[in-house]
Amino acid sequence: MLRSIASGFRSVHLIAGGLLILLILSFLVDWSGEPQRSGESPLVVLSEAEDAQWIRLPAPAVTDRLDRIYMAESEPLRAQVLQNLGEFRAAYQQLAPSLEVRVAPGLKSRQRLAERLGAALSHFGLGRARAGFDLALPGQARPAMLARCSGRDAEILRRLLAALSPYLAGDVLVQFDDSLRIDEIGLYLLGEPRFNEEGVAIFGNWE
Fold first, then answer.
1. What's the pLDDT score for residue 141?
2. For the chain, N or C: smaller number of CB within 10 Å?
3. What CA dihedral angle connects 151, 153, 156 and 161, to 10 degrees?
């Protein structure tokens, strides 16, 4: 009888220990099902439809002081983005994805942000910032950030945005167009960014 009770207690302890390990692992794994890297901001999928989805790039913890004037990125921020992009390139080099950053005219800060993103992408052969704007947009209620890719490349786009997320925060409307190739992924900066002291560009509905 005592052996049976002791054996039961050992089983309970083993089960509890296993559940604890699973709980710890669940905190270390992000939404994509892969271990979350240090310093990486996980994306949040807000809503999904057949031809589009909304994604949120989470804002940094401290956003008390935001400025309309462009702020250069801090060195730790730049190092994190380059590390992220290097890891992305190692994983997807055979597919040769490329992201082209376009910017709506009218704001110098937005243009400089696009140049910063383009420089980071081009460092690894993953894209560039390109002058000009070839997308017809409605005059009102347009998103602050818009991305376009084929539906089959949605996961690659999300991982590219995750790699760039130390530089960016805000909601992104992703539109799917299956005529686009993997080297024709586009990111359009349309809203007004505001910058914190680290150089993070935050897109929101500013009054």
1. 65
2. C
3. -50
Q: What is the pLDDT of residue 85?
A: 97
**Residue found under tokens 């054996």:** 7
Do 105 and 194 share a domain, yes or no?
A: yes
Percent of the chain with pLDDT over 90: 63
Say whether both 5 and 59 belong to one domain. no
pLDDT at position 116, please? 98
Q: How many other CB atoms sit within 10 Å of the CB of residue 147?
A: 23
Residue type at 114 in one-letter notation = A
